[in-house]
């Protein structure tokens, strides 16, 4: 019965070679090799790679593909810009677009002065601007890095609306993700700092996830978190109420800082990144590795 189903083509959508005759059962007929019908190797079988059985391989590819590019481009760590895709260059909240662009320009110019040579004399790129790759605040961040003549990363993901890669991402550092969790992995695991501009559900999700990792001390590396636009954030999230009701500790309020101008945000970033990653004692205890440096999770 199973053989009849295979001969009828049932189940051939994922493995087109299932209907080929088997050598041990067909010794008296012309073999597939002789007919030019060699079985394709698995990694070239498109239907199989798109099947549910190959989902773990697709997970892995969304880890290895960016990793290979980060190594080739000597990306050591990042400053991630989060914020709404709906904030436009011209509009009621356009000042956040312009501020994100200016801050990205300033951080890129500063980062160029602290990037370190690797063992082979190539420059390790420190604190590279990274965004979600789409429009709005994401575009502004990539655009600001471009204004400064630097490279920037775009971690795009296919969505029914809003999310298309912006033209300011460095082409060799532009990535398209299918799985949200793999995209979040690359946001978090290279980041030394986050700058979070006003945004909606996606921005809140990304912010709260990083705050949780920092609060629970699941990451060994210090991640600076800057909430840009105090008026917006204090209206949207009532942090004082969370403390008052005992949902977070008073000390958790130190996990982030507010900024309301590009220069004040830059000052916070420069002070924190210098203290934790650039001062001599920090360099001695955490030597610069060849790119990229993945944020280490605690094992105990």
């Amino acid at each position: 019965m199973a053989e009849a189903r295979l001969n009828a083509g049932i189940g051939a959508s994922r493995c087109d070679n299932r209907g080929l005759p088997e050598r041990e059962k067909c010794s008296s007929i012309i073999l597939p090799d002789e007919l030019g019908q060699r079985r394709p190797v698995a990694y070239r079988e498109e239907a199989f790679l798109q099947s549910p059985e190959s989902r773990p391989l697709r997970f892995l590819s969304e880890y290895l593909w960016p990793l290979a590019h980060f190594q080739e481009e000597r990306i050591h760590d990042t400053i991630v810009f989060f914020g709404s895709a709906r904030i436009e260059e011209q509009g009621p909240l356009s000042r956040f677009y312009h501020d994100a662009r200016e801050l990205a320009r300033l951080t890129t110019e500063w980062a160029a002065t602290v990037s370190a040579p690797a063992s082979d004399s190539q420059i390790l790129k420190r604190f590279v601007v990274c965004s979600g790759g789409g429009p709005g605040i994401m575009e502004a961040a990539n655009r600001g890095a471009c204004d400064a003549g630097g490279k920037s990363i775009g971690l795009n993901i296919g969505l029914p609306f809003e999310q298309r890669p912006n033209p300011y991402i460095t082409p060799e550092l532009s990535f398209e993700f299918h799985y949200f969790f793999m995209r979040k992995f690359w946001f978090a695991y290279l980041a030394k700092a986050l700058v979070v501009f006003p945004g909606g559900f996606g921005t809140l999700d990304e912010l709260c996830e990083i705050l949780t990792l920092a609060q629970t001390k699941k990451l060994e590396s210090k991640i600076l978190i800057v909430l840009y636009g105090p008026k917006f954030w204090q209206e949207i999230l009532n942090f004082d109420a969370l403390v008052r009701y005992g949902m977070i500790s008073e000390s958790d309020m130190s996990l982030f800082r507010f900024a309301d101008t590009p220069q004040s945000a830059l000052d916070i970033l420069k002070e924190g990144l210098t203290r934790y990653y650039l001062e001599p004692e920090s360099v001695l205890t955490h030597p610069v590795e060849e790119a990229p440096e993945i944020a280490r999770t605690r094992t105990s």
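The mean pLDDT is 85. The CA atoms of residues 115 and 126 lie 5 Å apart.
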